[in-house]
């Protein structure tokens, strides 16, 4: 593995990428930086934020690099929704997919993303608040929507780190 490449919107994915790069002792590049520094075919771990189930800039990274693992960063709890993410992004079965929970704050968003998430928080949040039999994941999602919160932790990367160490 030569590098970790990421795209970030609010900083959570960038934070995870830097933590992962430090742990694996590999270089870390944003997609913009990687375009100038990494040759086509370089083996990477790709990290991207999720919008509507799609990993942002994944398609571009797939065309240029040899992606050995994918980390999708979103509102869902770490380790959940992997099957859905794999299917929606057409990730081959041989490539491991890891999902990581982001920090969430509507205030960190900009433009249309801020508007979309404000609407989502109001509608989905109200629906979740009214639900009497919430799952632990729904409780966490509601808490994150209402109060924000710091969810980026090195512990969330243990699956990726274990996978990488098992490859070497």
Provide an overview of this structure:
InterPro entries: Flavodoxin_CS. This is Flavodoxin domain. GO terms for molecular function: electron transfer activity; FMN binding. It comes from Anaerobutyricum hallii. By secondary structure, this protein is α/β, with parallel strands linked by helices. The protein has 2 domains: 1-102 and 149-164, Rossmann fold (3-Layer(aba) Sandwich); 104-148, no CATH class. The protein has 7 helices and 6 strands, in the order E-H-E-H-E-E-H-E-H-E-H-H-H. It has helices at residues 12-24, 31-37, 58-64, 82-88, 111-130, 136-147, 158-167, and strands at 3-7, 27-30, 43-51, 54-55, 66-74, 97-101. Strands 1, 2, 3, 4, 5 and 6 form a 6-stranded mixed sheet that branches. The protein is globular and about 50 Å long. The model has no long low-confidence stretch (mean pLDDT 93).
Summary of the model, kept short:
This protein has 168 residues and is α/β, with parallel strands linked by helices. It has helices at residues 12-24, 31-37, 58-64, 82-88, 111-130, 136-147, 158-167, and strands at 3-7, 27-30, 43-51, 54-55, 66-74, 97-101.
Structural class assignment: alpha/beta
Distance from first to last alpha carbon: 9 Å
Largest sheet: 6 strands, mixed
Strand proportion, as a percent range, falls in: 15-25%
**Which range best describes the helical content: under 10%, 10-25%, 25-40%, 40-55%, 55-70% or over 70%?**
40-55%
């Amino acid at each position: 593995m030569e590098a970790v490449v990421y795209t970030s919107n609010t900083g959570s994915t960038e934070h995870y990428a830097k933590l992962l790069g430090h742990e694996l002792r590999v270089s870390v590049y944003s997609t913009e930086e990687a375009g100038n520094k990494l040759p086509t075919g370089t083996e990477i771990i790709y990290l991207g934020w999720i919008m509507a189930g799609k990993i942002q800039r994944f398609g571009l990274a797939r065309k240029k690099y040899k992606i050995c693992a994918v980390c999708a960063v979103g509102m869902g709890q770490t380790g959940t929704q992997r099957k859905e993410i794999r299917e929606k992004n057409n990730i081959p079965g041989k490539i491991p997919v890891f999902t990581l929970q982001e920090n969430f704050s509507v205030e960190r968003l900009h433009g249309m993303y801020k508007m979309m998430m404000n609407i989502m928080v109001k509608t989905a949040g109200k629906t979740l608040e009214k639900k009497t039999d919430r799952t632990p994941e729904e409780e966490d999602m509601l808490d994150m929507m209402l109060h924000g919160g710091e969810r980026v932790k090195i512990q969330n990367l243990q699956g990726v780190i274990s996978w990488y160490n098992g490859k070497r």
